[in-house]
């Protein structure tokens, strides 16, 4: 496949950015989207030009680093991470536009790389449980109902990629936040801090500059882990309970 790429280039957070046009040739449909960008960067290196900066780590759909907006869709046309997106989803001769996540709370570091440390600070604000030190407890000493354990497990698959924020017209991180609140709130181990957790994490979310949820649902559609929208209902229910308790 031969492709034309329109890529956002920006030297640093305060620099003016612009779209740049590139051509790549001999791209195999079996390559991942990131491998296609590797081909581009090898070519730019040979020419002595600055390679395009983009984030990645595991390339296995686990770490959440590979955050690219592809033709206006977070992670591109398939429900998966950019590293698991393959070039067979595109056609020979296609023109593809590649941008970083666009959200005030995710400032651009360089080109396609954004700073997602706001998510880390939300987790630090309350995304943990207290545990006694000492030897590991007996595995079945804290029974968890199967339906709650399965729901906690399903939403714990959130990889913190930020696609939900990038897809949301309000730049809200409510789906991410709801996934964390639900994951910990469904399990017995998460109960002691349940209502202080939701207040602290929502406060940090708002402090970081993420927007509010207006129930549009783009977040869940863009999520590569298919986190359901009802985690936001659980977030709001826990927040209402916490506020009633005067937390
Ligand atoms: S909820 Fe989905 S889109 Fe949002 S950070 Fe988690 S995995 Fe990514
Ligand atoms: S590089 Fe880790 S999820 Fe894509």
TrEMBL record:
Keywords: 2Fe-2S, 3Fe-4S, 4Fe-4S, Iron, Iron-sulfur, Metal-binding, Oxidoreductase, Tricarboxylic acid cycle. SUPFAM superfamilies: 2Fe-2S ferredoxin-like, alpha-helical ferredoxin. Its cofactor is [3Fe-4S] cluster; [4Fe-4S] cluster; [2Fe-2S] cluster. Residues 1-102 form the 2Fe-2S ferredoxin-type domain. It catalyses: a quinone + succinate = fumarate + a quinol. Binds 1 [3Fe-4S] cluster. Binds 1 [4Fe-4S] cluster. InterPro entries: 2Fe-2S_ferredoxin-like_sf, 2Fe-2S_ferredoxin-type, 2Fe2S_fd_BS, 4Fe4S_Fe-S-bd, 4Fe4S_Fe_S_CS, Beta-grasp_dom_sf, Helical_ferredxn, SDH/FRD_Iron-Sulfur. Its EC number is 1.3.5.1. It is an enzyme of class 1 (oxidoreductase). Residues 148-178 form the 4Fe-4S ferredoxin-type domain. Signal peptide: none annotated. The keyword Iron applies. Gene3D superfamilies: 3.10.20.30, Alpha-helical ferredoxin. GO terms for biological process: respiratory electron transport chain; tricarboxylic acid cycle. It comes from the Bacteria. It holds the Pfam family Fer2_3. GO terms for molecular function: 2 iron, 2 sulfur cluster binding; 3 iron, 4 sulfur cluster binding; 4 iron, 4 sulfur cluster binding; electron transfer activity; metal ion binding; succinate dehydrogenase (quinone) activity. PANTHER family: SUCCINATE DEHYDROGENASE, SUCCINATE DEHYDROGENASE IRON-SULFUR PROTEIN. Belongs to the succinate dehydrogenase/fumarate reductase iron-sulfur protein family. This is Succinate dehydrogenase iron-sulfur subunit. It comes from Nocardioides psychrotolerans.
């Amino acid at each position: 496949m031969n492709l034309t790429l329109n890529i956002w280039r920006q030297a640093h957070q305060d620099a003016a950015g612009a779209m740049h046009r590139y051509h790549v040739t001999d791209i195999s449909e079996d390559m991942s989207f990131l491998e296609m960008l590797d081909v581009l960067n090898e070519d730019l290196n040979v020419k002595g030009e600055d390679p395009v900066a983009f984030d990645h780590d595991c390339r296995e759909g686990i770490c959440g680093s590979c955050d690219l907006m592809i033709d206006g869709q977070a992670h591109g046309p398939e429900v998966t991470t950019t590293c698991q997106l393959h070039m067979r989803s595109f056609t020979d001769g296609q023109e593809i536009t590649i941008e970083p996540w666009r959200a005030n709370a995710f400032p651009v570091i360089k080109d396609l790389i954004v700073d997602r440390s706001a998510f880390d600070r939300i987790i630090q604000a309350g995304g943990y449980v207290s545990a006694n030190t000492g030897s590991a407890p007996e595995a079945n000493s804290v029974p968890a109902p199967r339906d709650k354990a399965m729901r906690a497990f399903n939403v714990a698959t959130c990889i913190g990629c930020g696609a939900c924020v990038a897809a949301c017209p309000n730049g809200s991180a409510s789906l991410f936040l709801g996934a964390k609140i639900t994951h910990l709130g469904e399990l017995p181990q998460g109960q002691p801090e349940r209502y202080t957790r939701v207040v602290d994490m929502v406060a940090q979310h708002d402090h970081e500059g993420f927007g509010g949820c207006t129930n549009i649902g783009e977040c869940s559609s863009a999520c590569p882990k298919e986190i359901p929208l009802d985690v936001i209902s659980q977030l709001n229910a826990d927040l209402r309970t916490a506020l009633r308790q005067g937390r």
